[in-house]
UniProtKB/TrEMBL annotation:
Any GO molecular function: hexosyltransferase activity
Full protein name: Glycosyltransferase involved in cell wall bisynthesis
Species of provenance: Lachnospira pectinoschiza
Transferase found in the keyword field: yes
Source superkingdom: Bacteria
Domain annotation Glycosyltransferase 2-like: ranges: 6-137
Amino acid sequence: MKLLTFAIPCYNSAAYMEKCINSLLAGGDDVEIIIVDDGSTKDNTLEIAKKYEALYPGIVKAIHQENGGHGEAVNTGLRNATGRFYKVVDSDDWVDGKSYKKVLETLKSFSEDNEPDMMICNYVYEKVGAPRKKVVHYRNVFPIEKMFGWDEMLAKFKVDQYILMHSVIYKTSVLKECALELPKHTFYVDNIFVFEPLPFVKKMYYLDTNFYRYFIGRDDQSVNEKVMISRIDQQLRVTRRMIESYLSLEHNNEKCRYYMRNYLRIMMEISSIFLILSGTKENLAKKKELWKFVKERDAKLYKELRYCALGWSVNIPGGPVGRGISKIGYKVMNKLIGFN
């Protein structure tokens, strides 16, 4: 069994995927790197994947599939994973070499009868044109370099500090235990990937190292503002699924439940603000429908999401004036945090 499986979803990624792959090869025989070509049509993504498979047998696997979207590529990686732990690295991102060594050394140090269900590391925004690199860490939230549970968290998360796909390494058996299956042909499923397994997580470990490098700067990137507005229906689909998941899963720990509820507040805020930014009557109607959906599904959850700072910020009364204030608030937060 391998120690760590990396899945790299690729779709027309030839221009940048080799930087990602090369950064992972330093793991040697301790890792497997599953490159999933998601039906690329415009370049030689599959050819590059097969080249690495031939050069590094036993480490790299190249898998070609009909186009199913980012989520299906993650699913394919998980189905084929043989590592004790599983991590997704997007094809335009990469990992830091020094941090990588620390990650592998730490994972090796765990005995199989006492290992974390989830390991968290820091990630770095590699944003084109940014004057400095923003590091997202968790020093104020998690005990450092020790095993802990939900009840041992130190403080609440800041708004820019949530556990994202960039920061998480899951124990593979946890993902299989919760029967994780991401939807096909849908962007923003990385939120589901980190969200749905959380009630199955009992033991965590925080390694304070800047491991993952998250690239932001391509015009066609899914987090680009214009792209997000054009794909808002997919964002809504993901948000609704996460709400259904939250309501249907058993929550044995109140702090886990509290964290997941706050994550939903962010998802509702993101969905709402991009519907507002679009400015169309159709999308403003979709915003009302989204909040109505939550209210009809669970009145208590609706109150918890609606009557908080984030819920208020996207439901300011006054029609166009209120929406204008919401837009300004979003622009200010984007400048402060730099999330897209």
